[in-house]
Design goal:
Layout: H1 2-80, H2 87-167, H3 173-185, E1 191-195, E2 198-199, H4 208-216, E3 229-231
Parallel strand pairs: 1-3
Antiparallel strand pairs: 1-2
Bound molecules: zinc ion.
Length: about 240
């Protein structure tokens, strides 16, 4: 029985490592998700910056077309001035032309202001493009790092699984079944040492006859509370 427990302890040592390595492997892709969120965010920002440039350019173009139309109107009126008959008509038309010209210079100022805005928006778009490129590089670095980590974990897991396979024939089937069942339900820890008079797994206080049985070691004793197989610390020391 002591030998059996010793083998189980070796198995537990391997399974404990396997449990943590597999969990680490499982969680690895989550680290990439964070980099993916940053990347998606940057893509959205760039798209918004691009749309801002486009929208400003479109407004600028519209205003330029409007200005051309208005300037053509002024020219047309100027042409008509030669055909007017009376001074009154002439003055009225001159006034109309002056008003149109004043409106046009306001429009010209608007267009100049828009040109500045387009320039500023283009600068921001370029900045966003730079940030996106950086985020893409960071994402790629992170992806490679996680791939490397996963490969390392796979190699470690494979090695431990091989060691595990070598140990399995040394454990009687009934014991192995019990052990595996506890292992699955107790987060990779099927064995627990006695700690004072309690179970080292769940810290529940154990009845004296259970403790005695563990020390006597005639059969495997499980904790009534967490089902872990109990062992005495003295097994670790010199026999
Ligand atoms: Zn327990």
């Amino acid at each position: 029985m002591v030998d059996e427990l010793e083998v189980l302890k070796q198995l537990q040592n391997i399974d404990g490592q396997l449990y943590h390595l597999r969990r680490e492997k499982q969680q690895a892709p989550q680290q990439l998700e964070q980099a993916q969120v940053v990347l998606t965010n940057r893509q959205t920002q760039l798209k918004a910056a691009e749309e801002n440039v486009k929208s400003l350019q479109m407004t600028q173009k519209e205003k330029e077309i409007e200005l051309q139309t208005r300037e053509a109107n002024v020219k047309k009126l100027q042409g008509q001035m030669f055909q007017v008959k009376t001074n009154k008509e002439y003055t009225a038309m001159q006034h109309e032309i002056d008003t149109l010209k004043a409106d046009n210079s306001l429009l010209e100022e608007e267009i100049i202001a828009l040109l500045d805005q387009v320039e500023e928006a283009s600068r921001m778009r370029q900045e966003e493009q730079k940030r996106l490129t950086e985020a893409q590089a960071a994402f790629e670095d992170e992806r490679r790092r996680i791939q490397k980590l996963t490969d390392q974990l796979d190699a470690q897991i494979k090695q431990l699984e091989e060691s595990r396979q070598q140990l399995l024939p040394k454990v009687p089937p009934v014991t192995l079944e019990l052990y595996q069942r506890v292992l699955l339900n107790r987060e990779g820890l099927a064995l627990a040492p006695l700690v004072d008079e309690s179970c080292g797994g769940c810290h529940r206080r154990l009845p004296p006859q259970v403790i005695n049985e563990v020390y006597i070691g005639n059969r495997l004793v499980s904790c009534e509370s967490c089902n872990r197989i109990l062992y005495a610390h003295t097994l670790d020391g010199p026999q």
